[in-house]
Amino acid sequence: MADCGGKGADVWTNGDILHVPDLVRWLAALEVMNQTMSGAADLVSLEPELSVELKMSGSGQIQMKVEISPDHMTQQHSFQFDLDQSYWEGLIANLRSLLAKYPIKGKLNV
Fold first, then answer.
1. Would the pTM of this model clear 0.85, i.e. be above it?
2. pLDDT tens across 81-91, in order?
3. What is the tens place of the pLDDT at every residue in 3-28?
4. Separation between Cα atoms, residue 102 and residue 106, nearest integer Å
5. CA distance 31 to 5
């Protein structure tokens, strides 16, 4: 289940929308972005219900775009947020903890 909301809107989607390899790739991109303070880290899934794009600006701010839909055939919902680096450590720590609890099985194809 995933949820994203902003002023006047709240969108939920359910199902198997993310897979462990998606999170492994996102964590790796987040760690590089955190170290270099530049670039992007996108959460991309084979499923069309959810995607997250993170881009670092020159001033250390992060632009976040979330696309989420409970029915990708008839709906499109997009949210944009401005974040700062204070969100980084918690997000990376949470992903590491989640992946330690649910490790990837087999070989990851990057």
1. yes
2. 999 888 888 99
3. 999 999 999 999 889 999 999 999 99
4. 12
5. 26
Identity of the residue numbered 100: A
Local confidence band at 108 (pLDDT 50, 70, 90 cut-offs)? low
Contacts of 91 (CB under 8 A, 6+ apart): 30
Q: How many helices (H) and strands (E) does the chain have?
A: 2, 6
Domains in the chain: boundaries = 15-101
Span 48-65, mean pLDDT? Answer: 91
Collapse the DSSP code of 21 into the 3-class scheme (helix H, G, I; strand E, B; otherwise coil) and give the result. Answer: helix
Q: Which of 73, 71, 87 is nearest to 12 (CA)?
A: 71
User: Please, which contacts does 87-90 make with residues 24 or more away whose CB atoms are closer than 8 Å?
Assistant: 87/62, 88/30, 88/34
Report how far apart, in Å, the C-alpha atoms of 32 and of each of 29, 37, 40, 72, 92 are. Answer: 5, 8, 9, 31, 11
Cα 61 from chain centroid (whole Å): 16
